[in-house]
Write a structure and sequence with these properties.
The chain is an alpha+beta fold. The chain has helices at 2-44, 49-56, 155-174, 177-197; strands at residues 61-77, 80-81, 84-85, 91-106, 111-115, 120-124, 129-146, 205-208.
Length: 209
């Protein structure tokens, strides 16, 4: 009977020890799971450059300014002899024309740096440039037309004229510091608006360089 009591006592101790070890192991597994969840939450609370690119993706090519203009010019086509105009050989048109120039930056050229610890996004913008330029053909109006019987102006000469007009207007605009600086400032506003509207970047400080 004493032997039986000793055996039962040993079994109880083994069961208690096993239960304690099991509980301890379960606690360890539970802690490991909590740590995994914490790690996942931490990963979701940080951002990287790819995250920013996804937020700004709807902006596409960032057109921030449009410049509308109407101008007057003169087109002449004539024959020359020894550097002088020959009489009765001049085709001449005085005309007005209108157009719109779009200026801005391309987002694929923007550089981002993320400091998750300081919750800061550092953005380096490229120079603004002309993205598109369209002349309104319906806005082309001729006020004075003089045709010479000795000079025939070809259609490709008018096409070349349109090309030179566009280049000249774009050159003038690129030299306009107020307009180009304003274009960059508008780009900053648009980018900041996108990032402040997104939940993951709403509390990040944005610094432009």
């Amino acid at each position: 009977m004493k032997k039986v009591s000793i055996i039962i006592g040993a079994l109880v101790i083994c069961l208690l020890a096993g239960g304690f070890a099991g509980a301890k192991l379960a606690g360890r597994n539970k802690k490991s799971l909590i740590e995994k969840v914490a790690d996942a939450v931490e990963e979701k609370s940080t951002i990287d450059v790819r995250t920013i690119e996804e937020i700004l993706q709807p902006a596409g090519d960032l057109v921030t300014q449009r410049y509308y203009y109407t101008d007057i010019d003169t087109f002449e086509n004539y024959k020359e002899l020894l550097g002088a105009k020959l009489p009765l050989t001049t085709d001449k048109v005085v005309f007005t024309y209108s157009g719109v120039i779009s200026a801005g930056i391309v987002l694929s050229r923007v550089e981002f740096e993320v400091d998750n610890e300081a919750k800061k996004i550092i953005i380096k913008l490229p120079q603004a440039f002309i993205l598109s330029h369209e002349i309104d053909e319906d806005g082309f109006t001729a006020y004075e037309v003089k045709n010479s019987i000795f000079t025939e102006t070809k259609i490709h000469e008018y096409s070349a004229l349109m090309g030179s007009l566009k280049k000249r207007k774009e050159g003038e605009l690129l030299k306009n510091e107020d307009f180009m600086n304003s274009t960059v400032e508008e780009a900053k506003k648009v980018i900041a608006s996108f990032l402040h509207s997104a939940t993951v970047t709403a509390d990040y400080t944005i610094e432009f360089q």
